[in-house]
Amino acid sequence: MRIFLILFLFHSFLYCQSLDNSNFLIIEGESPNYYYVLTQDGYYVCESSEKFSFKEYSKSIPESLNVGLNTLLPVSHNDKTYLLYPGGGLLYLFADGAIKRIDRSFPHRNQYGAYFFSHKGNLYLIGGYGYWQTKSIITKFNFNSGDWEIVTTSGQIPKGIDQGIFFIKKDNLYVFDFLTRNPNNQKEKRNDNLYVLNLKSFVWKKLGVTNNLIRSNASIKGAKRFFKFNEKLLFSYTDTPEFFIADFNENIVEKFKDDALFYKSSGHSIIKKNNLIGAVQNSLTGDFRIESFALSSLLNEETNNQLYLYRDTEEFYRYIYFALSFLTLLIIVLSLYYKRVAQTYLLDEKSISISGSLLLLTDIEQKTLSLFAQKRIVSNNELMGLFIEENKTKDFAVKKKNKTIQVLNDKLYSDFGIVFINRQKSKSDSRQLTYFLNKKVRIMDESTI
Which CATH number fits domain 342-448: 3.10.450, 2.40.30, 1.10.10, 1.20.950? Predict the structure, then answer.
């Protein structure tokens, strides 16, 4: 692989143009067979043979173009190349060997770091930074008036989009890895979400959180470059040899690494016929060389660095719904379980308690419950043994027993919300009563522990 790269680089050096300063701009041509390199003195035409030819401008550069050519934002639109002044406003057209101004606007200086793009007959500028705040606005150039108009958007609008990565697929504009600034202290913050703007309805939607492994080091400050390549997004950061291919249909991103592809090139780059056209600076002389890098040979290699691009918010909500449903079901099951399973009450010499709730008992009430702590079913004769007194009739003992059980049941129900003691006639003798403890109640006598 190294031998191949060395030979490949040697081949590209044979057909490259040397420039003595950084004030140049590489732009796409009207045909896939050539491209242009604009300089202050003229422009180079690179034909399919990779040979450059220099031509002077047919007209002088407009006086209003008082910034470096390398600061302009180029875009191809209807087989023409438009150049936007940094920060927005002034718009130029490169055609017939000349740079011409076509707007009636002024230098807005309101959208530095914005994304300039073409879509269905219109030119747009989105986001950027200006006048001490990041912007989420999108402006459209009016070819009739020569001025820019703000497009109204709605939905989940980002709070600011500066230096983002953009990708257009059909009528959707995706953006992620962008900065916002706090207007109070100008502190930068990286937004971790992937947003999409529908270019028909101009409604924003937040799709989810991007994979932090794509750019895990938050301190990286290198410029980013991104291209549409084979209906996928190709992007990289100039301070690292890694580059990425993102497939929005499959929600996956694949990571590659090659020192010759992006790491050594700088400035604005373009893709022509599956080749990346970029500039490489000679560290000794400072000169720049326009070189061509073949993408297909590198992207055909097998890689095990396939990651998800973003965590879908719908997937997150489905997880939340599942978790809440499971939790609700668990609560219902536990409630039913505790309703069916006996709850244990602790009985001591003066009270009965459960989970911090305590009820004071009289001596006879304590003795009555103590019987049910020993066994769940108590015969009437056993219970009567607590109430028979000397010099008192049996009828007196029966009334006292019934009164005690009624009062005790009322007290227990008032404090614990459940009837403790029930009674029924004996199956063997209907004249006999049997008392039994509620199946949802279990009494543990502290004296027996």
Answer: 1.10.10
Q: How distant is the alpha carbon of residue 406 from its chain centre?
A: 64
Determine how β-strand 351-354 pairs with β-strand 343-347: antiparallel
Pairwise CA distance, residues 373 & 448, whole Å: 10
Structure tokens belonging to residue 55? 């031509």
Residue 213 has pLDDT above 80, yes or no: no
Express each pLDDT in 335-387 by its tens digit. Answer: 776 665 568 899 999 999 988 789 999 999 999 999 999 999 998 888 988 99
d(CA 127, CA 201): 18
Q: Rounded to an integer, what distance in angstroms lies between the CA atom of residue 382 and that of residue 388?
A: 11
User: What's the whole-number average pLDDT of the chain?
Assistant: 84
Which superfamily does 2-319 belong to? Answer: Kelch-type beta propeller (2.120.10.80)
CB of 114 closer than 8 Å to CB of 135:
yes
pLDDT digits (tens, 9 = 90+) for 47-78: 754 678 899 999 999 999 999 999 999 999 98
Among residues 223, 206, 204, 207, the alpha carbon closest in space to that of 215 is found at 223
Helix (H, G, I), strand (E, B) or coil at 102: coil
What is residue 49's three-state secondary structure? coil
In angstroms, rounded to a whole number, what is the distance separating the alpha carbons of residues 401 and 372? 15
Q: What's the token pair of residue 88? A: 């927005």
| Widest Cα–Cα separation across the chain | 135
Give CA–CA dist 136/221, Å, rounded: 21
Angle of CA points 287, 292, 296, to nearest 5°: 150
d(CA 302, CA 305): 9
Per domain, the residue ranges of the chain are 2-319, 342-448
Of 157 and 320, the one with more pLDDT: 157
Helix (H) or strand (E) holding 347: strand 343-347
Residue-level pLDDT at 5: 40
Nearest to residue 267, comparing CAs of 254, 255, 276?
Answer: 276
> For helices 394-416 and 363-374, what crossing angle results, to 10°?
80
Distance between CA atoms of residues 404 and 437, nearest Å = 15
**What's the sign of the alpha-carbon dihedral 404, 407, 410, 416?**
negative
With CA atoms as reference, report the closest residue to 63 among 129, 107, 96, 108: 107
Residue 399: C-alpha distances to residues 147, 218, 362, 406 (Å): 102, 84, 17, 11
Residue-wise pLDDT tens digits, 254-289: 887 765 555 566 677 888 888 888 888 877 887 888
| Distance separating alpha carbons of residues 214 and 308, to the nearest angstrom | 10
